Amino acid sequence: QVQLQESGPGLVKPSETLSLTCTVSGYSISSDFYWGWIRQPPGKGLEWIGLIHHGGNTYYNPSLKSRVTMSVDTSKNQFSLRLSSVTAADTAMYYCARDRGEFYMDVWGKGTTVTVSS
Amino acid sequence: QSVLTQPPSVSGAPGQRVTISCTGSSSDIGARYDVHWYQQLPGAAPKLLIYANSNRPSGVPDRFSGFKFATSASLAISGLQADDEADYYCQSYDSSLSARIFGGGTKLTVL
Q: How far apart are CA B104 and CA A15, in angstroms?
């Protein structure tokens, strides 16, 4: 059974960089598919952040592209998100997910809350 | 502002059938990109409910069905149950943005 688990600091200061890691179990990220991040501000809807292939190809939401960097560590079966210059508007639940490459996400992590505050 | 438009809320009594609409444009649903649906129970992560317009992942009851036509799609839930109460999101791909896009979500209330 494929499982994803997000981890990282729950509190980030404004203007700093948010860093999260998603650990995948039950499936090798080197095998196939893409691996993505989605966020949900409190009380609001879902926003796609971007995704990465194990080969390193990345695809980002144009609205966040200038601040987003994704990477993958196949040796640890993990992939990561970095979002720079954060503001209060980046406060959200962040989810990692497996992307089938057919434009949908079939397995999601439970999510991790990130608050941007001084 | 979401690229795909959904009604903020729908409601129905137990046993009834409800539908949730998802309206897009010529650069997403109308460009023949598939529509997918997710169910988000209170306090939980989203769960894939329907993929590629009308396909159910293993374990999803056949009470849930999806349809796509022109620039819109719909999710139908028949035989409403109390534990269907959740937020439902449609999702597709926008070729002008080169991005996966979501609807704003619809809150289903079972009366």
A: 28
Section A25-52 average pLDDT: 96
- Band of pLDDT at residue A9, cut at 50, 70 and 90: very high
Supply the DSSP symbol for A85: S
Residues with Cβ within 8 Å of residue A40, at least 6 apart in sequence: A46, A47, A92, A93, A95, A111
State how beta strands B86-94 and A78-83 pair.
unpaired
Yes or no, beta carbons of B36 and A61 under 8 Å apart: no
d(CA B9, CA A66): 34
Most B-contacting residue of A34, A51, A104 (CB-CB within 10 A), to test interface:
A104
Question: Sheet harboring B64-69: ordered strands across?
Answer: B18-23, B72-77, B64-69
- For the residues B21-40, what does the mean pLDDT come to? 93
pLDDT of the residue at A55: 86
Among left, alpha and beta (phi > 0; psi -120 to 50; other), residue B25 is beta
Would you call A88 helix, strand, or coil by DSSP? helix
B103 touching chain A per CB within 8 A: yes
- Model confidence band, residue A54 (pLDDT cutoffs 50, 70, 90): confident
Alpha-carbon distance of A6 to A108, in angstroms, equals: 10
Give the chain B residue whose CA is nearest to the CA of A99. Answer: B100
